Amino acid sequence: MAATPELDAETCAALRGAASAKFSLGLQACGAEAPAAPAPLPRARQAQQLQMYDPAPVPPAPAALAASAAPVAAPAPVTRRWPASLGRALQLAPVVDEVALAENLDPLLLHAIAHVESRHDAAAVSHAGARGVLQLMPATAARYGVQGRSALHDAPTNLQAGARHLAMLQRRYGGELDLMLAAYNAGEGAVERHGRRVPPYRETQDYVRRVLGEYGRLRAAAASLVPVTVR
Asked: What are the Transglycosylase SLT domain coordinates in residue numbering (predicted)?
């Protein structure tokens, strides 16, 4: 590599005034050390910076820089879009209230089950063949007079049959909600085979936990009259 040529005093003064890393070779020629790179921020400080500037501003394109003197229009207002599941739940609320009242069930429990099962989606079909808002199996629905798979995609029909099934389980298990939900998910036979306890199936135990959690959240929101945030 060739030696760095010496520069005159006027040029060196200008380079030192610039204090920029891109002039490091010129500063070496003037007998000065190139400016050191800034030390990295401590980890905690980095986290603060990310919080303060997240999302980071996007640098303007060259064309935008040329037009920076022009007036900048105000950003369009952001319109909040509610989840589709919330719209379905609100649409089905009158039917849920009606079938819950008819079967002496808490409407919030039906909403919690519908949320966990299908997000209140009448078109939902599980990998096992359960259908509709409350994800009823055709054989279970047939016990309550609902024949044919297509009928289970009619939301009022599905909710009515599901509510009747839940009411039967409520009577059978004396209002023990965890057993009632376990039987709804895994069948009464599974609960009975395991000594009237929640079966040791990961899916069933997770199901019971999720429904109880959603039910508790809905009850707490209703009690405090705080709008519910749909996840």
From this structure: 97-198
Q: Are residues 9 and 101 in the same domain?
A: no
- pLDDT tens for 76-122 read 665 567 789 999 999 999 999 999 999 999 999 999 999 999 999 99
Read off the pLDDT of residues 119-152 as tens digits, 9 standing for 90 and up. 999 999 999 999 999 999 999 999 999 999 999 9
Whether omega before 38 lies within 30 degrees of 0, making that bond cis, reads no
CA proximity to 157, closest of 142, 175, 168, 173: 142
CA atoms within 13 A on the CB side of 113: 26
| Whether pLDDT at 175 is above 90 | no
21 located within any domain: yes
Q: Residue 42: how many CB atoms within 10 A of its CB?
A: 9
Per-residue DSSP letter, 70: S
Q: Catalytic positions, please?
A: 117
User: Under a CB-based contact definition with an 8 Å cutoff, are residues 96 and 110 in contact?
Assistant: yes
Size of the chain, expressed as the number of residues it contains: 231
Looking at the structure of the chain, the number of domains it has is 2
Whether 123 is in a domain gets the answer yes
As a whole-number percent, the residues of the chain with pLDDT over 70 amount to: 62
In angstroms, what CA-CA distances link 213 with 87, 120, 169?
21, 17, 20
